[in-house]
Automatic annotation (TrEMBL):
Key words, A-Z: Metal-binding
InterPro entries linked to this entry: Cupin_2 (IPR013096), GPI/OXD (IPR051610), RmlC-like_jellyroll (IPR014710), RmlC_Cupin_sf (IPR011051)
Signal peptide (from-to): none
Official protein name in the record: Cupin
GO molecular function: metal ion binding
Superkingdom as given in the UniProt entry: Archaea
Length: 126
């Protein structure tokens, strides 16, 4: 047995108004994955991951959008990938057309910690 897991994100329960959280359905232990389908003019809440130490990567699969990081607007177009450190505030601000992101989150693990395999499962992880 290979040990892989395959799902179709459209068959998972939708969280919030645009997000499909895939960590649990896939059985991921160290990475969160979310597919976000953004309706025109959609935006999520401003947030950070300072408390859980998760950095994130946003990959825009289709469309155009802006990601506000701290006080800077970062325009994105299809194919762009953006890494966001845990302490930075972030917000997706979609434009006039539908867009789709894959969001990946993972903890910053201290290899000198007593249990470096442990990571904090609080906050939002796909």
């Amino acid at each position: 047995m290979s040990g892989y897991t395959k799902i179709n994100y459209t068959e998972t329960e939708q969280a919030a108004d645009a997000m499909h959280l895939l960590r649990e359905p896939l059985g991921c232990r160290r990475v969160g994955v979310t597919v976000t389908q953004c309706a025109p003019n959609w935006s999520n809440e401003v947030h950070d991951h300072a408390d859980d130490g998760h950095e994130e990567v946003y990959v825009l699969i289709t469309g155009q959008a802006t990601v506000r990081i701290d006080d800077e607007d970062v325009p994105m177009e299809s194919g762009d990938a953006l890494r966001i450190p845990s302490g930075a505030t972030r917000q997706i601000q979609n434009g006039d057309a539908v867009s789709a992101f894959v969001l990946v989150s993972a903890p910053d693990i201290d290899p000198s910690a007593p249990n470096p395999d442990d990571w904090i499962l609080t906050g939002f992880q796909g």
